[in-house]
Amino acid sequence: HLPCAWVASVPESSWWPQCQAEGPVGPLELLQGGCVTMRSATEINSLINSRSLCRCCECLRCCGRRDPRPRTVWLGHPEKRDQRYPRNVINNQKYNFFTFLPGVSMAKFKYFFNLYFLLLACSQFVVEMRLGALYTYWVPLGFVLAVTVIREAAEEIRCYMRDKEVNSQIYSKLTARGRLRGSGILVPADMIFLRTSEKNGSCFLRTDQLDGETDWKLRLPVTCTQRLPTASDLLQIRSYVYAEEPNIDIHNFVGTFTREDSDPPVNESLSIENTLWASTVIASGTVVGVVLYTGRELRSVMNTSNPRSKIGLFDLEVNCLTKILFGALVVVSLVMVALQHFAGRWYLQIIRFLLLFSNIIPISLRVNLDMGKIVYSWVIRRDSKIPGTVVRSSTIPEQLGRISYLLTDKTGTLTQNEMVFKRLHLGTVAYGLDSMDEVQSHIFRIMGGRSARLAPAVKGLSLATKVRRTMSSRVHEAVKAIALCHNVTPVYESNGVTDQAEAERHYEDSCRVYQASSPDEVALVQWTESVGLTLVGRDQSSVQLRSPGGHILNFTILQIFPFTYESKRMGIIVRDESTGEITFYMKGADVVMAGIVQYNDWLEEECGNMAREGLRVLVVAKKSLTEEQYQDFEARYVQAKLSVHDRSLKVATVIESLEMEMELLCLTGVEDQLQTDVRPTLETLRNAGIKVWMLTGDKLETATCTAKNAHLVTRTQDIHIFRLVTNRGEAHLELNAFRRKHDCALVISGDSLEVCLKYYEYEFMELACQCPAVVCCRCAPTQKAQIVRLLQERTGKLTCAVGDGGNDVSMIQEADCGVGVEGKEGKQASLAADFSITQFKHLGRLLMVHGRNSYKRSAALSQFVIHRSLCISTMQAVFSSVFYFASVPLYQGFLIIGYSTIYTMFPVFSLVLDKDVKSEVAMLYPELYKDLLKGRPLSYKTFLIWVLISIYQGSIIMYGALLLFESEFVHIVAISFTSLILTELLMVALTIQTWHWLMIVAELLSLSCYIASLVFLHEFIDVYFIATLSFLWKVTVITLVSCLPLYVLKYLRRRFSPPSYSKLTS
Fold first, then answer.
1. Averaged over 817-832, what is the pLDDT?
2. Which of 377, 399, 535, 978 maximizes the CB count within 10 A of its CB?
3. Which parts of the sequence belong to the P-type ATPase C-terminal domain (predicted)?
4. CA distances for 576 relative to 572, 625, 732, angstroms
C-alpha cells in the first residue's frame, strides 16, 4: 500500500448496495458514506466493463467525449454527482486490438511502392495479365508484410507492458479507521488537498514531472477538513467542492469548498495552493484528497499531445525516388508499345510491359531497409559506451544522422538537480570551496568556546554600527543570516537505530533531512551546517539553530515574506529569544537588492564576476529593528492584509517601508551541478552544425546561469534578454531592438514568447533561427511542442527533442526524433520517446556515431538495391527490344526470385555493417556529421549516378551475352544471369569501405549458393554448357567489362578528389 489516500465521487447509488455486498469493484473500493479511494490507476481500463458500472452507464455514455465544464464533487453523497468522468489511464500505444491490423496496413500501403506491388500481385489473378507463377509476386509481398507486422506487434507489446507497469500502482484506501501509510508517492489524478499528517498542517509537493521545476512547492489543505479530528470524519460531513472546467493551466486554479452541515455553513476559496496535480509527488507526510479530474481531463494529459506515428525523412526521400522509378517504368512501357505502333490490343500490352518491367521498383527495398533499421537498433542497444540506451521506435534511426536543431530541457537533462555552495563573498574577501575551513574557524572563534549566554552578547556587540568589527564577526553575521533567512524545514526520520520521536527530541544529525521549496535554499542550509551553524528545528513560529559548541539558539519567527517571481527576493523578521533583539533579514537577486542595501562600490562588479562563472548569486542583507519600529510595522502590515481592494499593492508598500538602507552582509554563489560531460557534448553538437535550444519551465535567472555554466552560450557571445512584453506594440519595439544584435544568444520567457508568436510569428522565428543559441524559460509543456512544430514548419530541418520529465513528453512526441533521459524525474519522458538514454553525454555518440552510420548505411543500401533492380530491368528492356519488342520475360520462376534473395541478398544486406571511419574518429571530428545535413549520401545526383551505372552494366551484360552466345537461347540465359550475379557481388565489394568478416562470409555464401543451385536449374540453364571453358571465358570477359571501368573510376576519384573522411582514415 502506498501512502496517499484519494477520495473521489462514486457511481450512482443504484449499484451501491450490490457493490457493498460483493466487495471491491475493479480499481475503486467503496467506503463509508459513498466515498471511494483510487486503489489501482491501471485497472480503470476495466471500469466500463464491470457489470455494476455497465448497469449505471447507458452504453458508453459515461466515457464519451464532452465539452469540458465546471463540476461539483460531493463528499459522502455520490447520488448528487452531476456528470461522468473519463478513465484514468496512461496510454502511449499507437494501436489497440481492433485497429492494429488496419493501422499497420494503412501505414504500410501509404508508401507508394507498397501499394503498387499490392496492385501488381492482385493483377496476376487476371489470366490475360499473368506473366508467371503467382508465388513470384505474392511470396515477396507477404514476406514484406510479415516483417512489418511482427516488428510493429513487438513494439506495441513492449509499449503495452510499460504502460501497464505505470498504470498498476496501488494506492491506500481511506476507511473509517483512516489507514494511511508511507510517503513519496506519485499523485494519480488531479485533486483538492483535504488533510495531511504533517504537524505543521502543510506538505511539500515535487512538481518536476509536471513543470520541470525542482523547487518543492508548499501545499495547504482545506482549513475546514484539516481541523476534523480524524480522516474518517471526511466521510461523515455534508460538503462539496466546486471546480472550474478542465484546462491546461498548471499554475492557476479557481474553486470553492462548501460545508453545509455546519452552523453557519463554511465557504472557503480554493486556489493553486490547495491542489495536487497528477504526475506530481508527495514529498512529505501523507495526504487525503478529493479527485476532481481524471484521464484526458488531467492537467498533465491536456499539456501532452497524442502520440503519432513518425515517418522518417529518409523514408520519404526513398518514397520519392520510387515515384520517379514508377515514372520511368510507365515511360519505358509506353515506348515499347509505341515502337509496336500500338498494334492490336495495345492497352493490354501496356499492362504486360508494366508487369514485365516491375523490377524497376524493387519490392525488396522496403524489406532491406526495415531489417536494416532492426540491425541499427540492435547495435545501439549493444553499444557498451552508452549503456542502458533503449530504442523504442526502430523506424527512424536514420533521423539521428541529420539533426539540425536540438531542443533540450534543463532540469534533470543538462543538470543533476543537485545544488552545491561554491562561494561566499564579503566584499573585501571571498571564500571558495578550498577555503571553507577558514569560515569554519571564524564561526568556532565566535561561538564555539563560549556559553549560550555569552554568544548572544558577542552578537549584540557585533551589531553596533559604530564599533569596528573583526573579520570573524562579519563572517559570523553572514553565516547566521544565511542560516535564518529561508523556508527550509528539518525533518527527522527513523534510521533503524533511533526512532523518529527520539531523533526529533535530540536533534540527531544522522536522521535529519531538509525540505524546502527551492534546492538553492537546501544547499545554503547544508553549507551553514558544514561550517558549524546547524538548523535543527523549525515550525510555523520558531527556528532553532545549534552552535558549534552544541548550544541551541532559539529564534521566534515574527513575519515571513516568501519569494515570488515578481519580487525576486524573500525576507524574514525574527526575534532572538536570549536577547530580545529583532532583526529583519533579506536575500534576493542582485537586480532588486542593489536598490535596497546601503551604497557600496563592489556589489555590481562582484555579482557580474560570479555570474560569469555560472553561479546563481544571492545578495544577503539585514536591518535591526527596535520593538517600537516593529510594532508600528506590524500594525500597518495587518491593516494592509485586511484590505479588500488592492491588497497586494498595499502589502507590498508596507514591506517596502522596511526595505531601505539595509546593511549588505554577503553574496552567496550556488552552482546547479551539470551532468557529466555536458560541456564537451554541447561543444561537439555545435561543431557538428547542430543549433541547441534550451526550453525550460524554470526561472529566467536560473536558465541563464545554466546556459552559461554548460557553455551553451560561449564566453565570447553576448546574451540578449528579451524583456517582458504584454502587447503588440511592446513586442514590435523589442523585436526591433533584438534585430540590431548580431551573433547574440537569445533568452526569452514563455509569456513574451506567446505574445511574439501571436503577432509576429514569422519575424520572431526568422530572428531566432539566426541565433547561435536560444533559451526559453517559463515554458509550458504545450509551448515546448509549439516551438518544435514552428521550427519544423519554418526551416524544414529535422529536430531532436531531449527531456526527462512528464512536462517534456509533448515536445518529445512532436519532434522528428525524441530522446528521453531516465533520471530523477521518473520514466514518463523515456517511455514516450523514440530513444531512451541514461545520461545526456550519451547523446553525442548516439548522433555522431550511430546516427551518422545509420543514415550512410541506409543510403548505400537503398541505392544498391535500386541498382540491383535497374540492372535486371535494363537487361529485360534490351532483350525485348532485340526480339521485336515482345512482352516475354527474360528470366522466369525461381531465377527472378533467387536473384533478389539467396543469390544477392546477403552481400547487399551486409552493407548495414559498413562504415567509413571508426567511431573514435567520428567523435573526434564532429564536422563529419555536418556533411550529412545537406542529404548528400542520398540525393538526386547520387541516384542519377547509380541509374547510369545500372544502365551501363545491364546493357553490357545483355549485349555481351547476345554477341557471345552460340546457338541456343538457353545459353543467353546462362551467360547473362551468371555475369549478372558476379557483377552484383563485385559491385558490393566495390561499395564497401571497411570490411567486416560477415561481409566476406556473405559474399562466399551467396556465390556457393548459386554454384550449388545450378544443378537444380536445368529447366532454365544448360548444366553441361556451364561446365565448358567457353562459358567461363565469356562470363569473365563480360563481368570485367561491366565492372573494371568502375573500379578505375573509384581509384581515380580517391586519388585526385578524396572525400573528407578518407583524409582522416589515412
1. 78
2. 399
3. 831-1058
4. 13, 12, 53
